[in-house]
Amino acid sequence: IAVGSSTQIALFVVPFSVLAGWAFGKPMDLNFGTLNTSMITLSVIVVLSMVVDGQSNWLQGYLLCSVYAIIAVMYWYLPDTVHV
């Protein structure tokens, strides 16, 4: 249930944000950058590995907590301005 509802929210919020930015005259696009795209891909792969068999154990819980910590540390040390 949680995976399905988060997918529905993501599929609604992202296009709505682009349209709202267009309506308010703010530049909003779907260019999320390399780090954001790779973190989303990592999250999808980890969640897929959790829900594919329908069972869980302590090791899978540890993997979820570890990936959460890795993502938090990466965003903590992300510089505020990215030079392209």
Describe the structure in your own words.
The protein is 73% helix and 0% strand. The protein is an all-alpha fold and 84 residues long. It has helices spanning 2-24, 33-51, 58-76. Helix 2 runs antiparallel to helix 3 (58-76).
Q: Helical stretch count?
A: 3
Strand content: under 5%
Q: Could you say which overall geometry the principal axes of the C-alpha atoms support?
A: flat
How is the biggest beta sheet arranged? none
In N-to-C order, the SSE pattern is: HHH
**Uncertain runs with pLDDT below 50, 5 residues or more?**
none
The helicity comes to over 70%
- What is the straight-line distance between the termini? 39 Å
Counting DSSP E segments of at least 2 residues, the number of strands comes to 0
Give the helix/strand layout:
Blueprint: H1 2-24, H2 33-51, H3 58-76
Helix pairs in contact: 2-3
Question: Concise description?
Answer:
This protein has 84 residues and is mainly alpha-helical.
What features would you highlight for this structure?
3 helices, 0% strand, 84 residues, flat, mainly alpha
